[in-house]
């Protein structure tokens, strides 16, 4: 039985975290640099067709489309140890670059490539028995990942309206920034993601930096270190999709459990144990330790503090030899001790799942996905920077020069404001109001008699 996922990586960031993802995946499923299977575990092959197409006997090709508006990053991927895995036709790049300009990625340069990309994507989709959906790795700060990435999402949406759309979106931050117009690109992208994505995992460079710096004690973290963290999370989130398991075994089930309101599908992700590369195997970890770590703000890959909001829903994926009873008990105790941080109008809003295969170098690990109202801190940060520049119409000519209208900025800004107030509304919503509402309804019924 299929249930395949087509993976698309766009822009420099997308291709870098994407190739890290395929590196990790190939390690876990025992596939070497040229696509040959070298393992001996049935579980590695049982659902391998979710992400790989078996081209020949025991030879696997990632269902992956690599997209960029300039050749550089994709050339680097080609030359890397996993470069031989990908289908050469699935690497599509322009010669111009989007120059960190969302409008170039979405309207001009990107629009010229989009039909070619859609052809390849369509062919990948036709290769599937029963396609469950798409996942896109991109950043929201640049031009290609954000502009062309969101263009692809909306085009794929049009063509496959009933398939799931998940995105791994790297949100820009002033601490780790290479461009001044990042807030523009990010708000324009979120404007698209609110409407067209089903699940968005927010990864935030600022939080990744803090983790490398404070937890892993790296003095000068580079993008390689950040991407290593991202690939841990991507591998963890997709565990249930790739290995036999009970809960959230596909994207749609994950969405049903995690998204109480369609627009509020932006998740905070976390991972535990966080240990520096190389000394992971020396630490003994226990379920209580992992549980405590994963709810800790320091382990979140988004720079907002869950204690400043409330959880709507949570999913936790444990990997390795774990007693499920112990996990359930731990989760229950977290929920009891911290009940103020969980909305009371969604009972049992923590879901747990388990996979026997631990990640490389660790005995057990856990990936955390939280739908929390505190994600608005992240959006507030970007939005404030956006407004500061937009009030003065700074840098706008780069966008209007590509045919954009100022109106589009205004719309994006107000859509972002709406999203923030929706999160706030559900953070404040308690049970009392609903009880009050039910009383009213009862009285009305009584009057009618």
Folded structure, characterized:
- Residues 247-384 form the Tubulin/FtsZ 2-layer sandwich domain.
- Its cofactor is Mg(2+).
- Keywords: Cytoplasm, Cytoskeleton, GTP-binding, Microtubule, Nucleotide-binding.
- This protein has 449 residues and is α/β, with parallel strands linked by helices.
- It folds into two domains: 4-376, Rossmann fold, CATH 3.40.50.1440; 377-448, Orthogonal Bundle (Helix Hairpins).
- The chain is 46% helix and 18% strand.
- It has 16 helices and twelve strands.
- It has helices spanning 11-28, 42-46, 72-79, 102-106, 109-126, 144-159, 182-196, 205-215, 223-242, 251-258, 287-294, 324-337, 376-391, 396-400, 406-428, 431-448; strands at residues 4-10, 52-56, 59-62, 64-68, 91-93, 131-139, 164-171, 199-204, 266-272, 311-320, 350-355, 364-372.
- The strands form two sheets. It has a ten-stranded mixed beta sheet with strand order 5-4-1-6-7-8-9-12-10-11, sandwiched between helices. Strands 2-3 form a two-stranded antiparallel sheet.
- Strand 6, helix 6 and strand 7 form a beta-alpha-beta unit.
- Helix 1 crosses helix 9, helix 7 packs across helix 13 and helix 11 packs across helix 12 (324-337).
- The longest helix has 23 residues, at 406-428.
- The radius of gyration is 22 Å and the shape is globular.
- The protein starts with a strand and ends with a helix.
- The relative contact order is 0.12.
- Residues 435-449 have low confidence and may be disordered.
């Amino acid at each position: 039985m299929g249930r395949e996922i087509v993976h698309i990586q766009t822009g420099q960031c997308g291709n870098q975290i994407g190739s890290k993802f395929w590196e990790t995946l190939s390690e876990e499923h025992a596939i070497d640099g040229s696509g040959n299977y070298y393992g001996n575990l049935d579980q590695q092959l049982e659902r391998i067709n979710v992400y790989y197409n078996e081209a020949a006997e025991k030879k696997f090709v990632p269902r992956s489309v690599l997209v960029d508006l300039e050749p550089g990053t994709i050339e680097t991927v080609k030359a890397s140890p996993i470069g031989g895995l990908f289908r050469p036709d699935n690497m599509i790049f322009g010669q111009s670059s989007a120059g960190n300009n969302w409008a170039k990625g979405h309207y001009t340069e990107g629009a010229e490539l989009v039909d070619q990309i859609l052809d390849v994507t369509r062919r990948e989709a036709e290769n599937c028995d029963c396609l469950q959906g798409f996942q896109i790795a991109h950043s929201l700060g640049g031009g290609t990942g954000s502009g062309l990435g969101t263009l692809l999402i909306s085009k794929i949406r049009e063509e496959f309206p009933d398939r799931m759309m998940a995105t791994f979106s790297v949100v820009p931050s002033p601490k780790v920034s290479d461009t001044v117009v990042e807030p523009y690109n990010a708000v324009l992208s979120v404007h698209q993601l609110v409407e067209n994505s089903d699940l968005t995992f927010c990864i935030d460079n600022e939080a990744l930096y803090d983790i490398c710096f404070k937890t892993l004690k790296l003095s000068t973290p580079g993008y390689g270190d950040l991407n290593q963290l991202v690939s841990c999370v991507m591998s963890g989130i997709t565990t249930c999709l790739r290995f036999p398991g009970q809960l959230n075994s596909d994207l749609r089930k994950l969405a049903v459990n995690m998204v109480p309101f369609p627009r509020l599908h932006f998740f905070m992700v976390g991972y535990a144990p966080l240990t520096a590369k190389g000394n992971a195997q020396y630490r003994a970890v226990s379920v209580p330790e992992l549980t405590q770590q994963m709810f800790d703000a320091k382990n979140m890959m988004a720079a907002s503090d869950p204690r400043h909001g409330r959880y709507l829903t949570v999913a936790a994926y444990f990997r390795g030899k774990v007693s499920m009873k112990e996990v359930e008990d731990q989760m229950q105790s977290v929920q009891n001790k911290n009940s103020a941080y969980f909305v009371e109008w969604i009972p049992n809003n923590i879901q747990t799942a388990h996979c026997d295969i631990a990640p490389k170098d660790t005995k057990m690990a856990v990936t955390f996905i939280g739908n929390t109202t505190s994600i608005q801190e992240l959006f507030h940060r970007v939005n404030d920077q956006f407004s500061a520049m937009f009030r003065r119409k700074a840098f706008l000519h780069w966008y209007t020069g590509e045919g954009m209208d100022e109106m589009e900025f205004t719309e994006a800004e107000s859509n972002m404001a709406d999203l923030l107030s929706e999160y706030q509304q559900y953070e404040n919503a308690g049970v009392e109001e609903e009880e009050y509402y039910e009383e009213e309804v009862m009285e009305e019924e009584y009057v009618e008699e």
